[in-house]
Design a protein that fits this description.
alpha/beta; seven-stranded mixed sheet; 24 strands; about 20% strand; globular
């Protein structure tokens, strides 16, 4: 029997979408932007100490290989020719910090996380404090708070009338960004410090780690990043588009370990992958697109015009507004960041960004910590049953408040409780909290840009929740528009890869961009009611502030009773008096 003829679909483009909670590899048709196949692998996060969030870089890399292999197997089952994949793009969780040995390819520490990236909402495995897992020391993710004391000491070194860090980077000095995590590693991890001294160490965010590994690793791997990821390190001058010597000196970071900075759309290197695998057919395919996840979503939503904005709802929320070639600095707590640079000779475009640390993460908290949900999807049913929060307000500031407050001392609160309050009301309040936080960022953005948004484009895993989307339209008092194809982050990375010079299979000309069907949510309550609810929310936020201090988790709650001098003195003197009394009374 003759073999079935392979389907010819025109040039295909792959995209690695690497987030905090999962990794995916997706294949798109460059002519239609249709998603043909994908595979997803869930990832673990590790919490070795209170306030510490880490991931294993080797697990991240292995998940990429697995996703690529399984997707290629699925394409073969669909009778699609893998050789028609002409380019691969990378989208990644930003700020998460990795250091590895350039000779062995071994990570020198766990990835230290940045605030959680907005991938699909999936369960997170917790490794308890004291875990013996050797991989539990490799990467720092964005909700990690170990550097709060470092930030406070560094802040004292910045002149009050010359905040050169913010003027050069567009970023406030915060635990959120890579430079502080990297500074902490160099100060506290002997293995890292030694490798840097011996000139064996390489630093990168997740994109750099993946591109270096996929292009050969120790055998000629390309050590690079793109402007969007570089702009989130706090070591990159967003005006000159170069690593900044003054910033590196301020954070005590040697410039020799930093990756080369490239545009978001150009050929960085070629895939090197085992021929024994199905994915071996991708050997020699160029990796030609690289964008931090939020910039990728902006491109995937086709927000190429000044004033266009999108909000991604995942573990966190990230609202970006394209400000074009103008670098706009916020007076209302937002970040100035690089949106994209789609080619070596193309202009750079900037964006204003506001981030909500806890969005989908609050749903997981209700499920895993309080146990009022069996699945993440169940929150929509509970909220629909309630129809209201019944005066209950939830501020999920589990690790402080991000934009527009940047208040690390805040902690989560649920207030307005009565005897009538039940789990349905709390579920509703949790969804409202996501919407209120988005409203705060949008208000700040409107003030900075001077032109109020007429609608908000949305994407991310949480947008499947129709109650949430309707609440968002009600609280913003403008329509919320959701594309029918939800994979906008991966699509943006694929578009950048296919558009790159030397690949040229994806046109970004306005007349060639594929029209996307949208679902639209219109406001259903009057503005007065919306304002009353919003003002009550802001009252709850004020009550959440000022809870935490910079006291180290390792010293907080010290079980040694003598760490309290008055208590220790009382116990010692009491013992002396008791012994003396027994001696005087003649009691043996």
């Amino acid at each position: 029997m003759a073999a079935a003829k392979k389907a010819v679909l025109g040039p295909l483009v792959g995209a690695v979408d690497q987030g905090t909670s999962s990794t995916r590899f997706l294949i798109f048709n460059s002519r239609t932007a249709e998603l043909l196949s994908h595979h997803q692998v869930e990832l673990k996060q590790k919490f070795p100490k209170e306030g510490w969030v880490e991931q294993d870089p080797k697990e991240i890399l292995q998940s990429v290989y697995e996703c690529i292999e399984r997707t290629c197997e699925k394409l073969t089952e669909l009778n699609i020719d893998i050789s028609t994949i002409k380019a691969i793009g990378v989208s990644n969780q930003r700020e998460t910090t990795i250091i590895w040995d350039k000779y062995t390819g071994e990570p020198l520490y766990n990835a230290v996380a940045a605030p959680v990236s907005p991938g699909p909402s999936v369960p997170v495995a917790v490794v308890p404090s004291g875990s013996s897992d050797p991989a539990a020391v490799t990467s720092s993710v964005w909700l990690d708070l170990r550097t709060q004391g470092t930030v406070e000491s560094l802040n004292k070194r910045i002149p009050g009338n010359n905040n050169f860090v913010k003027s050069k980077t567009g970023l406030p000095l915060s635990t959120y960004f890579s430079a502080v995590k990297l500074h902490w590693m160099l100060e506290n991890v002997r293995k890292v410090k030694k490798a840097v001294e011996e000139e064996r160490a390489l630093f990168g965010t997740v994109d750099s780690w993946l591109i270096w590994s996929l292009t050969g690793g120790p055998n000629g791997g390309v050590h690079c990043t793109d402007v969007t990821n570089a702009s989130r390190t706090m070591l990159f001058n967003i005006h000159s588009l170069e690593w900044d010597a003054e910033l590196c000196e301020f954070f005590d970071i040697p410039m020799t370990i930093l990756p080369n900075v490239r545009s978001s759309s150009e050929i960085y290197g070629l895939m090197k992958i085992s021929h024994s695998l199905k994915a071996g057919a991708l050997e020699g395919v160029p990796i030609s697109g690289c964008l931090g996840d939020q910039s990728a979503a902006l491109v995937g939503q086709m927000c190429f015009q000044d004033g266009q904005a999108k909000n991604t709802y995942g573990t966190g929320c990230f609202l970006l507004c394209n400000t074009g070639q103008k670098c706009v600095f916020s007076d209302h707590g937002l970040l100035t960041t690089v949106a994209y640079k789609l080619g070596r000779d193309r202009p750079v475009c900037y964006a204003l960004e506001g981030s909500v640390a806890i969005a989908g993460a609050v749903v997981r908290w209700l499920r895993d910590n309080l146990g009022i949900l069996n699945t993440s999807e169940e929150i929509e049913k509970l909220a629909n049953e309630a129809g209201t929060s019944y005066g209950c307000y939830f501020v999920p500031a589990f690790s402080g408040l991000y934009a527009p407050y940047w208040e690390p001392s805040a902690r989560g609160i649920i207030c307005g409780l009565t005897q009538f309050t039940n789990k349905q009301h709390i579920a509703f309040a949790a969804l409202e909290a996501v919407c209120f936080q988005t409203r705060e960022i949008l208000d700040a953005m409107n003030k900075d840009c001077g032109i109020p948004l007429s609608h908000l484009q949305v994407d991310g895993g949480m947008t499947n929740n129709k109650i949430l989307m309707q609440l968002q339209a009600d609280i913003l008092c403008i329509p919320v528009v959701k594309p029918s194809m939800p994979e906008t982050t991966a699509l943006g990375a694929a578009m950048a890869a296919g558009y790159a010079e030397g690949v040229g299979v994806w046109s970004l000309e306005p007349e060639d961009l594929t029209a996307v069907t949208m679902e639209r949510f219109e406001p259903q309550i009057n503005e007065e009611e919306s304002e009353i609810r919003y003002s009550t929310w802001k009252k709850a936020v004020r009550k959440a502030m000022g809870w935490a201090s910079a006291q180290s988790p390792t010293t907080a709650g010290d079980p040694n009773i003598f760490s309290s001098l008055p208590l220790g003195f009382f116990i010692v003197t009491s013992m002396i008096m008791l012994i003396g009394a027994r001696y005087i009374s003649g009691i043996p």
